[in-house]
């Protein structure tokens, strides 16, 4: 019996139909998203300092795109958000197939679905902010980033320690509440985001130390570089045009979003590699990647 057949037999008794995990994920993401939307639009966070207006972005629409509506002054910064949606959809289909074949258990599929459905929603949230430039959309954009990063920590923790509903709920709730730091200081979001990135990276390192493999090491490095690009290019958005006019069209903000999408993709790859390191084995990982490809 092959390693793949053995692993499938080992996991099939605990599997549920892929649709169940997807519906559970939707029932998790939709209420969270609606709650954040309502709170972002309320007066609760009206005092939060956010960046509004084109002066905070380096991108300027080239003359040959002047036929676009006035509501699209930054075409690339708007269009790039489709990448989040496409990446999320791709991984949802990928995990559905992996779950169907028995390589991913239902609870692991649930975590993948939550992460990638949030990626899709994140694309819409950021696109809406770029277009409307309202205070509520800016708050929502910032706020949604935090539980998105917390999911990385929660997912890896569940791989390492096993699934438990209570820690999942508590950690996600703590992540959402951490945005209240913005009510205390103008750099509250930056502090909260930095802490989220730190705990996610720390948990990834702990997983690597416990379950080292070439695939997981590669995707960790690529994900870390993408994260650095996401943060660094965003901070340099208004500085890069001082070096070359090129960055007024292909801006640092746009490139940071490309890095962010790559970060999401490599995080999924890291998750997937870790599942096989923990539960199945690297031989099965390579076999499944070849078969699914």
Automatic annotation (TrEMBL):
It comes from the Eukaryota. Keywords: Membrane, Transmembrane, Transmembrane helix. It holds the Pfam family TMEM187. InterPro entries: TMEM187. The chain crosses the membrane at residues 20-39, 79-98, 110-131, 143-159, 166-185, 191-211, 218-236. This is Uncharacterized protein. It comes from Batillaria attramentaria.
């Amino acid at each position: 019996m092959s390693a793949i057949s053995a692993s499938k037999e080992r996991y099939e008794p605990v599997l549920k139909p892929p649709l169940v995990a997807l519906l559970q994920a939707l029932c998790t993401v939709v209420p969270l998203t609606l709650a954040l939307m309502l709170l972002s639009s309320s007066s609760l966070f009206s005092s939060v300092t956010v960046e509004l207006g084109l002066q905070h972005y380096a991108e300027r629409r080239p003359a040959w795109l002047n036929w676009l509506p006035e509501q699209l002054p930054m075409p690339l910064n708007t269009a790039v958000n489709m990448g989040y949606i496409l990446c999320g959809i791709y991984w949802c289909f990928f995990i559905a197939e992996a779950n169907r074949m028995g390589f991913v258990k239902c609870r692991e599929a649930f975590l993948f679905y939550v992460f990638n459905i949030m990626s899709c929603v994140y694309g819409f949230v950021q696109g809406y902010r770029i277009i409307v430039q309202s205070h509520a959309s800016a708050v929502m954009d910032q706020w949604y980033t935090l539980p998105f990063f917390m999911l990385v920590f929660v997912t890896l923790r569940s791989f390492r320690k096993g699934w438990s509903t209570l820690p999942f709920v508590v950690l996600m709730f703590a992540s959402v509440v951490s945005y209240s730091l913005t009510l205390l200081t103008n750099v509250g979001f930056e502090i909260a985001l930095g802490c989220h990135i730190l705990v996610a990276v720390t948990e990834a390192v702990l997983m690597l130390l416990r379950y080292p493999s070439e695939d997981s090491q590669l995707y960790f490095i690529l994900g870390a570089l993408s994260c650095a690009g996401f943060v660094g290019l965003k901070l340099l958005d208004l500085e890069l045009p001082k070096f070359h006019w090129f960055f007024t069209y292909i801006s640092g903000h746009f490139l940071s979003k490309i890095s962010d999408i790559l970060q999401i993709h490599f995080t999924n790859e890291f998750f997937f590699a870790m599942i096989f390191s923990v539960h199945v084995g690297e031989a099965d990982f390579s076999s499944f990647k070849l078969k699914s490809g």
